[in-house]
Amino acid sequence: MDQKLTALLINCTLKPSPAGSSTEVLGEQVLDALAEHGVTADRIRAVDHDIRPGVQADMGDGDQWPSLRERVLAADILVFATPTWMGQHSSVAQRVLERLDAELSETDEQGRPTLFDKVALAVVVGNEDGAHHIAAIVFQSLNDVGFTIPAQGSIYWNGEAMGSTDYKDLPETPEKVAQTITTAASNAAHLARALKASAYPKA
Known about the structure:
alpha/beta; Rossmann fold; 6-stranded mixed β-sheet; globular; Flavodoxin family protein; Flavoprotein-like_sf; FMN_Rdtase-like_dom
């Protein structure tokens, strides 16, 4: 655990701060688990920022994505967290994924995509089905732009269909969710350290 690692949680809840967010609660639990592996954390609640529509690194005219992008580039691990609405990831999550699409044309000093050697986890929460579907979309999108996905890298909770209990209101973390958090955090930290020690070669 000699190498210092950093993680960035992008919370794609539809609720602006300071409203309570189940997505935030589960995302923070993942950060707590990463901290046990020496990973320090940064956090963004995307809906609090003016992220303009588009697929460029800077859409101009007050776009706040460029400063958020710098925080993405500074992190070793991205924790991408979204609620489930109508069986889909949130519109905020889609906006962030679309802005990350710009990284397809960005390269580092070695000519490699800027997001190579970075690891991503997916966090999905909601009172309806859709977690596997959402994780598949998130993972494919993030892998396309250069992120590496660790084994068992999705953490999710689905409440009772059409139920009224939110994840943030649970008296304790469900056992299976806790186990998944532990595994995903351990695998993400291990993979991030491996990539930091031995980066992907230039193609």
